[in-house]
Specification:
This protein is α/β, with parallel strands linked by helices. It has two domains: about 160 residues, Quinone Oxidoreductase, Chain A, domain 1, CATH 3.90.180.10; about 140 residues, Rossmann fold (3-Layer(aba) Sandwich). About 30% of the residues lie in helices and about 20% in strands. Helix 6 links the parallel strand 8 and strand 9. Helix 5 crosses helix 6 and helix 5 crosses helix 11. The radius of gyration is 20 Å and the shape is globular. It binds zinc ion (2 copies). The site of one zinc ion (ZN) has 6 residues, from helix 5.
Length: about 350
């Protein structure tokens, strides 16, 4: 990974907007691109998709079609482009659009680890002055968690009120999911993680912490902590092991939402056990525009948000160091989120 000068993004479509990036977060999914495991990408490639910034320039049709966007408007960027006209887009599930492109992950859309980035105007949400750029760039991961909470609620019959849950993984997605589920009325939520620092934040946020490690029977411990199996669960890690833990610690025919993508290829399913336990595993991908908007509102109201002490902000020059610390270093005590400021 290198910091280098490159061509500035240009307005190529009438509704394009150029955004000056103020903050861009490092996501777990950027780790795969850092390790260069994605065969579709060609170097040099610019990653980064969790960003906030200021509108720098607008295409000729933006003023008429998106009057809320002007040069100087503060924005949070939704990094999943979509066609807007297919049945999935029209039903609100644009993250499943066959034509979707994810900023910084798709070869034709350079990401926000840059001073300037191009986006279609429909993907930019204005943010009020009270929402800092630091918080606003976490709208994207928070939206993933909001959608997980939404799907758990949906598959729990439309309400999480008084229900108990399990979240595997206390990273940013799991942490935001905990806050979201509590906001939806969940009474008890166990969050598992190996990192004691993450679990301290979980407890402060009202969750029940369960440290995992060798010899810990997660399903038995969760059952003890909740007084029975969970009404719903969410795997925010993405190992076969955590997928199974969520499925097996949840009541028969109750949802086990899988959003973690650590193992992105085949992940063996213990089918006999899934059948006998009545496991309902639900793939939950990214977020709808409505979930993105709700995440932004909750960040603004303070209902959700990473603790300031868990967020590190630095310049691009320190980026390589932080990628190594986040993705190659096994030692615990990592910050929940590293946010880059291109001006530093
Ligand atoms: Zn992300
Ligand atoms: Zn579409």
């Amino acid at each position: 990974m290198q910091v280098q000068d490159g061509a500035e993004p240009e307005i190529t479509h009438p509704t394009d907007v150029i955004v000056r990036v103020k903050r861009v977060g490092i996501c777990g999914s950027d780790g795969g691109r850092w390790e260069w495991t994605n065969a579709l990408l060609k170097q040099p490639h610019i990653g980064g998709h969790e960003y906030s910034g200021i509108v720098e320039a607008i295409g000729p049709e933006v003023s008429a079609k998106f009057p809320h966007l002007k040069v100087g408007t503060r924005v949070a960027g939704m990094p999943i482009d979509h066609c807007s006209v297919c049945a999935l887009c029209r039903s609100g599930l644009s993250q499943h659009c066959a034509k979707r492109r994810v900023m910084g992950a798709h070869p034709t859309w350079p990401g926000a680890f840059a001073e300037l980035v191009a986006s279609d105007a429909k993907l930019l949400i204005p943010i009020p002055d009270e929402l800092s750029f630091d918080r606003a760039c976490t709208t994207e991961p928070a939206a993933c968690s909001t959608w997980v909470g939404d799907r758990c609620e949906f598959f729990c019959g439309g309400s999480l009120k008084g229900k108990s849950g399990l979240i595997a993984g206390g990273g940013p997605i799991g942490f935001f999911a905990l806050q979201d589920m509590i906001a939806r009325g969940a009474s008890k939520v166990v969050v598992t993680d190996a990192d004691p620092n993450r679990l301290k934040s979980v407890e402060k946020a009202g969750g029940i912490a369960l440290q995992v490690g060798p010899g810990v029977d997660v399903v038995a411990e969760v059952t003890k902590l909740l007084g029975g199996l969970a009404d719903f669960s969410a795997d925010c890690v993405g190992f076969t092991e955590t997928r199974d833990q969520c499925g097996f610690a949840t009541k028969p025919y109750h949802p086990s939402a899988w959003c973690g993508l650590h193992v992105d290829g085949p992940s063996p399913v213990a089918a006999g056990q899934y059948i006998r336990r009545g496991v309902v595993s639900v793939g939950v991908f990214a977020y709808t525009p409505a979930a993105y908007k709700l995440a932004g509102e909750r960040l603004l109201s303070g209902t959700i948000g990473l603790p300031d002490s868990d967020v590190v902000c630095c310049g691009f020059d320190d980026g390589q160091k932080w990628f190594t610390r986040l993705f190659a270093d096994k030692a615990p005590g990592k910050p929940a989120k590293v946010v880059l400021d291109p001006s530093l």
